[in-house]
């Protein structure tokens, strides 16, 4: 697998991680069986994609980028879908996270 495919799989894994977080929230502590099932499927998918990506990418950079995609995506989804606060401090730190992700990608 090429490095480009590794990055594509890593980004896909990060996006699936966001979907997993949303499904887990919707599962209401796994009391909603349909959402719990979706959550477990998404968990398996993002771990599988991350595992494949780590075959060709440096683990430190890849894991940091993956975590950042999940964190930023989950914050954004929380704001858009669940009415979580979008105050200046939260948005500042999300921006810092994005800058860090870009810096790690550029440095690798």
TrEMBL record:
PANTHER family: GUANIDINIUM EXPORTER (PTHR30561:SF0), SMR FAMILY PROTON-DEPENDENT DRUG EFFLUX TRANSPORTER SUGE (PTHR30561). InterPro entries: EmrE-like (IPR037185), Small_drug/metabolite_transptr (IPR000390), Small_multidrug_res (IPR045324). The chain crosses the membrane at residues 33-51, 63-82, 88-107. It is found in: Cell membrane. It holds the Pfam family Multi_Drug_Res. It comes from Methylobacterium oxalidis. This is Guanidinium exporter. One of its GO terms (molecular function) is transmembrane transporter activity. GO terms for cellular component: plasma membrane. Belongs to the drug/metabolite transporter (DMT) superfamily. Small multidrug resistance (SMR) (TC 2.A.7.1) family. Gdx/SugE subfamily. It is a multi-pass membrane protein. Coiled coil: none annotated. Keywords: Cell membrane, Membrane, Transmembrane, Transmembrane helix, Transport.
């Amino acid at each position: 697998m090429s490095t480009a495919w590794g990055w594509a799989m890593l980004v896909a894994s990060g996006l699936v991680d966001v979907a997993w977080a949303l499904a887990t929230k919707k599962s209401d502590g796994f009391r909603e069986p349909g959402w719990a099932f979706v959550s477990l499927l998404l968990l398996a998918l993002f771990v599988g994609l991350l595992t494949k990506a780590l075959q060709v990418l440096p683990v430190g950079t890849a894991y940091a980028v993956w975590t950042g995609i999940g964190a930023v995506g989950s914050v954004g989804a929380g704001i858009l879908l669940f009415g979580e606060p979008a105050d200046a401090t939260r948005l500042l730190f999300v921006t810092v996270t994005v800058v860090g992700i870009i810096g790690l990608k550029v440095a690798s």
